Q: What sequence folds into this?
């Protein structure tokens, strides 16, 4: 089954966002397929993805867990100069910026509650009654889901 990271589509060289109409057009083509796994949470294309999705896996980890993971990942990527999407790299300066739009660490802190509330609301919304929401609240939950997926 095709796996698509929305970040790889959205983040163009120099971290420039793909224009919304182009982003939507590309995601429309992907979501039209018979089966896929789409990784990402972009409001601009959520309606396209969720209209065709049968399952949404929602990672609702505690803020302390999210922050530990995001900080460690960001430091590792910045120090090793790991190439992400379209030649982009995490800048070291992102470790110290306070504007959420300029720091994934700050973004994760500021948006944690927003995303939790958004998914809880969506899971109860009749518009998404066709979607099974799977909440992952711990590493144990993730292990159980992965083991079920591979038939263990």
A:
């Amino acid at each position: 089954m095709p796996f698509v990271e929305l970040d790889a589509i959205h983040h163009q060289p120099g971290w420039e966002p793909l224009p919304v109409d182009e982003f939507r057009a590309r995601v429309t083509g992907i979501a039209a397929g018979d089966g896929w796994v789409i990784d990402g949470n972009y409001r601009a294309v959520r309606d396209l993805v969720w209209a065709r999705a049968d399952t949404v896996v929602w990672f609702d980890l505690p803020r302390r867990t999210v922050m530990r993971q995001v900080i460690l990942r960001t430091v590792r990527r910045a120090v090793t100069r790991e190439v992400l999407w379209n030649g982009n790299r995490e800048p070291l300066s992102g470790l110290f910026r306070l504007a959420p739009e300029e720091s994934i660490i700050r973004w994760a802190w500021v948006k944690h509650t927003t995303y939790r509330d958004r998914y809880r609301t969506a899971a109860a919304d009749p518009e998404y009654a066709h979607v099974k929401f799977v909440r992952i609240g711990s590493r144990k939950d993730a292990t159980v889901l992965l083991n079920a997926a591979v038939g263990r």
Q: What stands out?
A: Residues 1-53 form one domain. The longest strand covers residues 55-59. The CA atoms of residues 43 and 69 lie 23 Å apart.
